[in-house]
Amino acid sequence: MKFIVEDAGAYLQIKVTEARIDAAIATPFKDKLREIVVKHRKPVHLDMANVTFMDSSGLGAMIAVRKSLPDNLAIVLCAMTPNVERVFRLTRMDRVFDIRPDAIQKEANE
Amino acid sequence: MRLKAVVPPKTQPMFHRVLDADPVVVRATLTDMRHRFARDVCDDTLGRLELVMAELMNNVAEHAPVATSDRLPVIHLCIVRHQAGLACALADDGVSLPDACMLPRSLPPAIADNLPEGGFGWFLVQNLTQALCYYRASSRNYLAFNIPFMEREDENLS
What we know:
The structure holds two protein chains of two kinds.
Chain A: E1 3-7, E2 12-16, E3 20-21, H1 26-40, E4 44-47, E5 53-54, H2 56-68, E6 75-78, H3 82-90, E7 98-100
Parallel strand pairs in A: 2-4, 3-5, 4-6, 6-7
Antiparallel strand pairs in A: 1-2
Helix pairs in contact in A: 1-2
Chain B: E1 14-20, H1 23-37, H2 43-62, E2 74-81, E3 85-92, H3 121-128, E4 130-137, E5 140-148
Antiparallel strand pairs in B: 1-2, 2-3, 3-5, 4-5
Helix pairs in contact in B: 1-2, 2-3
């Protein structure tokens, strides 16, 4: 389970390297990501561009991570692929998460 | 009297597999399934098929009877491309499905400060399938359903 973590100043940028967030890895995915976000205590931008498949156990892991963010810090999901976006949309979790279509852009004036 | 020329049966892509109900094996099976239909079925339909199959097969794995059996349940999977979509049949020798799975499902309530982390699987299955049928016989579960094509996709059927 590998995440590419980069401190972008105002927020933490995390790139998911796994292509599939499914029942085979949902629990370690959740535990590892939760550990990262709790340790840094910053808003999170999660780059989902590599993830081509996610099932309901993967969705459950994402929800658990969101709930574990301290002090209501934001989590933004970026660059979701259509298969992953479908799961969020059908379960109406697209209303709960902040979802942005584009890949994470480095903000020039930061 | 001459016999009419025999019309050969139309061949359509199929996928059949017998597998252990284990999430890692399920994952490999889904990847193979996707490859099998990649040329003939559009990405959107494949995505819906893959999600439904993942939910159903991982469900068998998750509810495998650990205490009473020294082996994993075995799943039989068969998918055929038809005019209107992908006809799917699944059989497994895992535990019986609760009746509630076949009743119309709604989403678990999304309470802002206590979001549900599960309970989405059967909602997704019901949402993405047509003509979902279930019966249990001789200690096996049988499920059959259709994953419909979206408009226009059936025009590609040769």
